[in-house]
Every structure is written in structure tokens, then in C-alpha cells.
Amino acid sequence: MSDLIAAVATARGSAAIGILRLSGPGAVGAVEQVFRPASGRPLTSYPSRTLVYGSLHDAQGRVIDWCLATVSRAPHSYTGEDTAELQCHGGAALLAAGLEALFAAGARQAGPGEFTKRAFLNGRLDLSQAEAVIDLIEADTAELAANAAGQLGGAIRSRAEAVHSQLIDILAHFHAVLDYPDEEIAPFELAGYVQTLADARAQLQQLHDTFRRGRIARSGLATVLLGRPNVGKSSLLNALAGYDRAIVTAVPGTTRDTAAERVRVGGVLLRLIDTAGLRQTADEVEALGVARTEAAAQSAELALCILDLSRPRTAEDERALALAQAAPHRLIVGNKCDLPRQQEPPEGTICLSARTGEGLDALEAAIAALVGDAGSAPWDGAVLTNARQAGAVARAIEALGRAEQAMQSGMTPDAVLTDVEDAIEALGQLTGRSLREDVVSRIFSRFCVGK
After folding, report:
1. Which among 204, 216, 290, 295 is least buried, having the fewest CB atoms inside 10 angstroms?
2. Which alpha helices (H) appear in 300-444, and where do they start and end?
3. pTM of the model as a whole
4. CATH homologous superfamily for 5-121?
């Protein structure tokens, strides 16, 4: 990290404002080569985080913009290094010319996420906070944005560090007694730490239990629409989406492939998957669609099995009902309730009309009751939305469980503490205290250039 990096920190395309960002040794000097304060004073004479008005020049020295510049000196900056920003008008050609001028002044193009990676490597952020930066950028709901802001503020780190500190105290006591037998140190007894280990595991389990909620909020609950042809699967998808997402015709077999749409229903984000109607067919393409329907049902978390109440029950309906049983959650939907009824739906069926919208509120309420998060904790950063983080917490929980079992089996302290050390290692992976460089690089490759 001994070199100077630069990038456009705002989205591509024309906009009112565009930002050029630099970080590394010589950042202030490089900006001084392309920016001249209108006051005539050197930029270096201004305090950190002061906005200075002046002219921006291209690599040939021509004025290309009148803008604002600001510098933040190490270590009190986002990256922990000397940094600078030029807040320009947002023309794409203007920003490209400004960036070329910074390259001529000694900077190189920053890689994806390199500014935030430097902040992590310089100790300005731990890894959970760094990942919260990309979560904040990508958040598409107010709840996810609030949760990411809480994580950026250290919500996950504080919980991990509390448990980490408890476990370190156990190891420190054991090694102190072992290494300094002549000192007046209280004897190390495993029995005295039974509750400590149990409490630590309970705290981590509480954190891990939030992951399902966070994953659904971020990615949506995989929800498959099942039924024979023309029961109204595509019509229901369109009704829930609020627009004609899928083609609807009276011709059976119109849907021949799976089609997905993210829709919020009853406060729950669903990844709705419309599927080909279940039936025997000689059409090779439709048969492939039916096979994909069965595969989607096997991997879905919620199945909405749709029956056409205006027609008698068929073998295909029974097949759809059986297939829905593979999903962890399922609801039976009786469609076309606005037409004369030709079958009695199973008990608990939600009757509605995808055409008129009648009964959709009942479906929303049923989904909210089935998989909603009513009564859950606020979105304050304590909800895990990241699979990598959830995996690290799970490994720590497993290690502490092994430690408790070893203790109950009468194992020696050193054997028990091996599992405690494994839990500490897993917590280190959560915050980035201990993580391989290739894993770190892969995490930051998700970021956009300029962040």
C-alpha cells in the first residue's frame, strides 16, 4: 500500500456531481498539481476536511472545471492514509480528463473496493464493517439500509468482541497458572467456566438465529408457484407483482420455463418463481419446463400450490399438492373464486381471484404469519445478512459445543481449550482478525471501483 490510487467515486454517466478520489502517499501533492485554489493559497495550508473552491486542470494544464477540493490527512481519514477528493460537475468526459490528470501526477487506477480494503488493512474498519459498506450501497429497502448502517457502526463487532474477550480470559487464566506456578494466581478449574461457555454459545446462537431473517430480507424467500396448466399461476404472479410480468393466455402450456420476480407480499420479500404447468405432454420443450418445475419445487422454501376452483380436481392437481410437500413452508391457493365452484378445496385453502384481486389480502396475511418477522428485533445492525459471517458464527457455536461436551466428559483442560481456541479463530474470521489474504481479496472484489 505504498502507492497512490485514484478513481471516480460516483456512478457512471452524467450527473450533477462527480467525485474524484485519491488515497496514499502524495495524495495532497498530486491534487495540488491539478487543482488551484481561487484564494491563491496552497491547498496544503488548509486544515483537513475543509472544502476549498478552485479550478481543475487537465493533463495539459487547461481549465476543465471549477470545483471543490478537500483533503484528509493520515491517520484520520477513511483509509487511514492521506486522502483527497475533488467534487466536480458530473460530466463523464470531464471526470475522465480529471482522472487522466491525476494519473499523470503519479496516481494509478484503484481496483474494486481498494479504498475500503485499505481502510480494513489500516485498522480503520474491521471486516464486518467493511462488508457493511457494500451492503449499504446495495440496500434496496430502508430496513436493510438501517441494518447496514448499524453494522458499519460496529454492531456485529461489539457482539463478537464481547464473546471473544470472555474466551480469551479463560485461555489467559489457564496459561497464567501453567506458566507462572509460583505466582499467587487463583487455581484454574474448568468447572468455574461452565456457565461462561454456555453464555458465550447462547449469545452467538442468538446472533446466528437472525440470519434467516436477514437472508430473506436481502435475497427474498424462494417461492414456487405450482399447479396444472391454466390454474392461474402466471395471473397470480402478475397480480402480486402489480404488472404483467408473465404472459397469460387461455392456451394450456403457455409457460414453458421458470420466470422469477422479486415481490414484497405481506411485508415479506418473495422471489416468486412461475413454473410450467404440471401435466403429461409429448411436447419436448414443455416437458423440459415441467422438469424444471419439479426442480424448482425441490429447492424452494415456500410453495404456493394453486387449484382452479372452477374446475373439478384432477390427477395433475394431486401431483402439484404432493410436490408442494417438499417445501419447508406451503400454502394452498384456490383461484377463480369469482366463478361457480366445481370442487371443494382442502381445509385451510386461501380462496381468491387473481383476475379481480379478491382475496389477495388474505394471501398476504397468511404469508406474513407463516414466514414474517413480526415481533423481531429492530434492524439496528444485529441482523446477519451475510452468509460468510453466518458461517463464521456457526463454526464458533460448534466449537463451543464441542468444548462443553469435552468438559462434561471429564477431558483435561488443554483438550477442552483446544475447542475454545477454535471458537476464537472462527470469531477472528468474522471480524477479519484472522483471515487468509485470498479470502479478503475475494470479499473486496464485490465492491465497485472508487469505494
Report:
1. 295
2. 315-324, 360-371, 387-408, 413-431, 437-444
3. 0.79
4. Probable tRNA modification gtpase trme; domain 1 (3.30.1360.120)
